[in-house]
Amino acid sequence: MSISIKDVEHVANLARLELSDADKEQFAGQLNAILKYAEKLNELNTDDIEPTSHVLPLANVMREDEVKPSLTIEKAMLNAPEEEDDQFKVPAVLE
């Protein structure tokens, strides 16, 4: 597989980039070098390697939910600057 100048122009057009002819040549060369380097992976023997989607095993880092007692209304309202009908009272923010 090879990247042509036409491919570079197409991608530049999609990215709304204006490239000079020298830039197009340079990018085509660089992209072809990357592809050539990536082709080295095809030389590796992967017969005994299991396909993976992640390098590390996935595990949920969240703890299990546990039902615990919560604050009583009286304790929750102790630090409230104002309360009304067992609810926090806040200034209206309507215009």
From TrEMBL:
Please indicate if the UniProt record lists Transmembrane helix as a keyword.
no
Q: How does it assemble?
A: Heterotrimer of A, B and C subunits.
Q: What is its EC number?
A: 6.3.5.-
- InterPro entries registered for this protein in UniProt: Asp/Glu-ADT_sf_sub_c, GatC
Instruction: Quote the catalytic activity from the record.
Output: L-aspartyl-tRNA(Asn) + L-glutamine + ATP + H2O = L-asparaginyl-tRNA(Asn) + L-glutamate + ADP + phosphate + 2 H(+); L-glutamyl-tRNA(Gln) + L-glutamine + ATP + H2O = L-glutaminyl-tRNA(Gln) + L-glutamate + ADP + phosphate + H(+)
Q: Which domain of life is it from?
A: Bacteria
Q: What's its job?
A: Allows the formation of correctly charged Asn-tRNA(Asn) or Gln-tRNA(Gln) through the transamidation of misacylated Asp-tRNA(Asn) or Glu-tRNA(Gln) in organisms which lack either or both of asparaginyl-tRNA or glutaminyl-tRNA synthetases. The reaction takes place in the presence of glutamine and ATP through an activated phospho-Asp-tRNA(Asn) or phospho-Glu-tRNA(Gln).
Q: Which family does it belong to?
A: Belongs to the GatC family.
Q: Does the keyword Ribosomal protein apply?
A: no
Q: Which UniProt keywords apply?
A: ATP-binding, Ligase, Nucleotide-binding, Protein biosynthesis
Q: What is this protein called?
A: Aspartyl/glutamyl-tRNA(Asn/Gln) amidotransferase subunit C
